[in-house]
Design brief:
The chain is mostly helical. It is about 75% helix and about 0% strand.
Length: about 425
């Protein structure tokens, strides 16, 4: 089987399977099994098993359930609602204050959980009723929540950044630093936009008549201290080289458990809910790793990876245009596929070319991840668009598209800035 036929066959079957509603893990795994049999006969099953289980040996994989546990445990405690109250107390009287607080809350919760879905839905359930009562424009609210909720896979600790590190061999600490810099840049741009638009259009985000005392404001910060201390201690230990990501995640998980117990929230119902959600998320990731490992192994052994690398490398375009094309492909894929699947599917093809062209690997990986975030709110099929529709069923989907569009442009603008000035990321992530 020629590499051309293999490429069109495997990716075509994968696309058809996804359109038919087959889960990504089984779509990739099933495609791999079929083409392994067509190419190698029954012996191809050995390649499938070897690839699938070979991908399970990375110690970094054990960090995934631990980081997932940290986020889920914090989100399912009362810390989440108290966090929102703290943002409300400190930002309520500013123009668009509740939206600014909501944006910060969504980004914080997103980073805690590592899940765009959990962050977007939780923020919407907490924030939308509060802002409806105060006359905030529903579309403005939905756009802010949907966009801020995408930052969970960019701001560390991020499961997808760990997977990128596994696929590329890059330092998790440097990837986390790059994710932190770019994520905070995007969040700052969101807040500037919300503040400026709220001042120009006060009818969209009326000022809330809340006058908390200094004592009340300081008291509200108590809910912020625990999650921030836990997350910062985990990140600092990784950045400073004191602990590996897995070790840091273990310490963080223990700290979360102790803090929840001290708050009196550690009961059987809480343990059951946290355990179930952690197992579900981890299981989803592991199954996608299985399927993607099998897919890339068969595709690579059939000459497909080398073929695509040769096509991209021989396009005759400038190296910068090749990088731009890769990022555009990532952006489009992000509208249809889960980030985990995209990372495992295309990074093995893209990354060797990036290294060959002499670009900074961390810079490319962070741009890659940022485009996955943008894909979450890109019409017509971005995941977060449908989460917003579930939160506000009466809002027409075209209004949701319009609501997120300014934020989509902002994220593209930040991406363009990082693309044009790589030194922003390379300087921040330099190991000296």
């Amino acid at each position: 089987m020629t590499p051309e036929i293999l490429t069109f066959g495997m990716f075509g079957m994968l696309l058809v399977s996804i359109i038919l509603g087959v889960s990504l893990s089984f779509a990739m795994g099933g495609t791999a099994v079929l083409f392994a049999y067509l190419i190698y006969g029954s012996n191809g099953m050995y390649s499938i098993v070897s690839a699938a289980f070979g991908g399970m040996w990375s110690i970094l994989l054990s960090a995934i359930p631990l980081f997932t546990f940290i986020g889920v445990a914090l989100a399912k405690s009362k810390i989440a609602s108290e966090l929102y109250h703290a943002f409300y107390m400190w930002s309520g009287r500013m123009p668009g204050g509740l939206l600014l607080g909501t944006s910060g809350f969504a980004a914080t919760l997103s980073a805690m959980t590592g899940s765009c879905a959990a962050s977007t839905i939780t923020t919407g359930m907490v924030g939308i009723p509060a802002m409806d009562q105060r006359g905030y424009d529903r579309n403005f609210v939905l756009g802010t929540i949907g966009a801020s909720g995408t930052l969970g896979i960019l701001i560390p600790p991020s499961i997808t950044l760990i997977l990128i590190g596994m696929q590329t061999g890059q330092s998790i600490g440097r990837l986390f630093l790059g994710g932190m810099v770019s994520g905070l840049m995007v969040l700052a741009a969101f807040m500037v936009y919300v503040a400026v638009r709220s001042r120009l259009r006060p009818d969209l985000a009326p000022t809330v008549d809340v006058r908390p005392t200094a004592r009340e404001k300081l008291k509200s910060l108590g809910s912020v201290v625990i999650p921030l201390l836990i997350i910062l201690s985990v990140l600092v230990s990784i950045f400073a080289g004191i602990a590996t990501p897995t070790e840091a995640a273990s310490i963080g998980a223990a700290a979360v458990t102790v803090s929840v117990a001290l708050r009196g929230e550690l009961n059987w119902t809480y343990v059951k809910e946290v355990s179930h959600t952690t197992a579900s998320v981890t299981g989803m990731v592991i199954w996608i790793v299985f399927g993607a490992s099998a897919f890339t192994a068969i595709y690579g052994s059939g000459g497909g990876t080398a073929y695509l690398q040769e096509v991209l490398g021989g396009m005759g375009s400038s190296p910068w245009m090749i990088i731009l094309l890769m990022q555009a492909v990532t952006l489009v894929l992000g509208m249809f596929l889960d980030p985990v699947g995209i990372i495992l599917l295309v990074l093995p093809i893209f990354f060797p070319i990036v290294v060959q062209l002499g670009f900074d690997p961390i810079w490319f990986c962070i741009l890659f991840q940022l485009n996955l975030c943008i894909g979450y709110i890109s019409p017509p099929f971005g995941y977060n668009l449908f989460y917003l529709k579930a939160l506000s069923p009466t809002t027409p989907i075209k209004d949701i598209y319009a609501a997120v569009f300014p934020f989509l442009l902002i994220m593209l603008g930040v991406g363009a800035l990082l693309f044009a000035f790589p030194q922003i990321l390379t300087a921040a992530t330099s190991t000296g």
